[in-house]
Amino acid sequence: NAGVMQNPRHLVRRRGQEARLRCSPMKGHSHVYWYRQLPEEGLKFMVYLQKENIIDESGMPKERFSAEFPKEGPSILRIQQVVRGDSAAYFCASSPSGIAPYEQYFGPGTRLTVT
Amino acid sequence: AQSVTQLGSHVSVSEGALVLLRCNYSSSVPPYLFWYVQYPNQGLQLLLKYTSAATLVKGINGFEAEFKKSETSFHLTKPSAHMSDAAEYFCAVSDQRSGNQFYFGTGTSLTVIP
């Protein structure tokens, strides 16, 4: 049973370019979460999605960031016009249920570097 | 709002010594508490979780944690450190209200000295 998969593992973008991060949840999981980890900090919640729905995006920056989880295919976190401050590790997690309590299963992360 | 404080961003122990990583939480409703471990350039792996059953929770790799409501703490311990325990450890909290959001501490980096 494959775990949560994220690609790419490392992504380098120049300022102003777009970054697309992909996340495939564990088999049977329909709840996806994105977190951002800045250097020397813990993970900060960004967004929670179910298939075709954004449930909670209270942690998403108001501009340039968007997320989707289509009926088919992986969840995508999209960052437009990247800036140096977007450099971070972005982690995706999935869970089988949206009803607490439950643990979230994390992917290996995508490390974004903006030059 | 929920929050997590991990005292000590860096902890060093000798191989074979007791490991104690501290976590205090803030939550206005009964919390769910988790410890995750992160090895370099990898994702987070669940060590153990507290979800209102037994207050002493046993996890993988010999780790355990005790939920103490009066102290709002959920400290992680292991009787004897192994070199392979060197990693970053994160405490996280959620609850029935925030359920979808996990609030993470800033992490504790554990070094094991041979």
Structural description of this entry:
- The complex is a heterodimer of chains A (115) and B (114).
- With 115 residues, chain A is mainly beta.
- Chain A contains no helices and 11 strands.
- Chain A is 0% helix and 49% strand.
- In chain A, strands 2, 4, 5, 6, 9, 10 and 11 form a 7-stranded mixed beta sheet that branches.
- Chain A starts with a strand and ends with a strand.
- Chain B has 114 residues and is mostly beta strands.
- Helix content of chain B is 0%, strand content 53%.
- In chain B, strands 2, 5, 6, 10, 11 and 12 form a 6-stranded mixed beta sheet that branches. In chain B, strands 3-9-8-7 form a 4-stranded antiparallel beta sheet, with no helix packed on it. A two-stranded antiparallel ribbon of chain B has the order 1-4.
- In chain B, strand 8 and strand 9 form a beta hairpin.
- Chain B starts with a strand and ends with a strand.
- The model of chain B has no long low-confidence stretch (mean pLDDT 90).
- Classes of the chains: A mainly beta (115), B mainly beta (114).
- Chain A binds chain B through residues 4, 6, 31, 33, 35, 40-45, 48, 55-56, 58-59, 91, 93, 98-101, 103-109, 111, and chain B through 4, 9, 32, 34, 36, 41-46, 49, 51-52, 90, 92, 94-96, 99-107.
Largest interface: A-B, 30 and 28 residues
Largest sheet data of chain B: 6 strands, mixed
What would the principal axes of the Cα set say about the shape of chain A?
globular
Largest sheet of chain A: 7 strands, mixed
Proportion of residues in extended strands of chain A? over 45%
| Helical amount of chain A | under 10%
Structural class of chain B: mainly beta
Name the features.
heterodimer; A: 115 residues; mainly beta; seven-stranded mixed beta sheet; four-stranded antiparallel beta sheet; 49% strand; B: mainly beta
